[in-house]
Amino acid sequence: MAWHDQDSWLTWVFSPSISAIIVTALIALLLPVLIHTILYRTQAQASTASFLLLGPSGAGKTSLLTLLERGSTSATHTSQTPSSAEITLPSTIKSASNEYRSENDSSFSGAQRFILTDTPGHGKLRQFASDKLDAKTLKGIIFVVDAANLSKESGGRAEEGLTEAAEYLHDVLLALQKRYTSAKTSKGPKELPVLIAANKFDLFTALPEKLVKTELEKEITNVRNTKSKGLLDSGIGTSDDAVEEEKEWLGDGGEGKFEFRQMEEVNVFVDVIGGNVTGADGPGVGKWWEWIAKQI
């Protein structure tokens, strides 16, 4: 049957019949909705917010991942490889992008999900974390520390725990600083928030948030001074290497006391928030949930 025949589909489409009008109206109304749904879901799957879980071994990273994913903790062991999980925010907490969005919006649930990647804390396995710092979907870094193991005045294991945490955090912040200073555009990379999750607040020996911040800043200053001296002793620091020297020193050129607020100049914003993964006496993980929600 030719298209110009009286009974052809083209003749029917342009005819003034009720059925043709209804079909045309349905196509006009439903096609844009269908296209929007397909495009939105494809984009949402490709750009799901992601967070990196960092910190020294024994701080509670894997336990935190398990708790956020399943709502309960279980026995864990030292991680040897990265592990990721898709996590949904609790129904009582809205992400920043959902603040003014109706719960009846079909995209509401999608904006409540994020990917959390736990990385090994052992010194020889930390390259897994550094490889993921440039991910385009990265919305923030959660650096877990043991708040009951950070007092240098206590000596022994606590002093070692502070030094290990400060050295790792120093290297992470320096990598983020280089990410900014090495940018090829004047605008630089987007803001990247860092949460220092002071874990084990249910223990009596845990330091308060302000002291966690102070102790880490002091120890990072010591780490920076030690590394800077090593660079100078190795010959870096001559006029020809001035640019490289500046890139290797964290904060304000490696001088004076290091403070987390110095990182704001390179679009890195650091918050110290206490909580606890296990134990019923501490504040729990509520404030950490809220911090994550603000980033997505």
From TrEMBL:
Superkingdom, taxonomy of origin: Eukaryota
Q: Which CDD domains match?
A: SR_beta (cd04105)
Protein location: Endoplasmic reticulum membrane
Read off the Pfam families from this record. Answer: SRPRB
Its chief place of residence is endoplasmic reticulum
Segments crossing the lipid bilayer:
12-35
Per UniProt, which keywords does this protein have? Endoplasmic reticulum, GTP-binding, Hydrolase, Membrane, Nucleotide-binding, Receptor, Transmembrane, Transmembrane helix
* GO cellular component terms, A-Z: endoplasmic reticulum membrane; Golgi apparatus
Topology of the protein relative to the lipid bilayer: Single-pass membrane protein
Q: Which GO terms describe its molecular function?
A: GTP binding; GTPase activity
GO biological process, alphabetically ordered: Golgi to plasma membrane protein transport; intracellular protein transport; protein localization to Golgi apparatus
Could you say which protein family the record assigns here? Belongs to the SRP receptor beta subunit family.
Q: What is the name of this protein?
A: Signal recognition particle receptor subunit beta
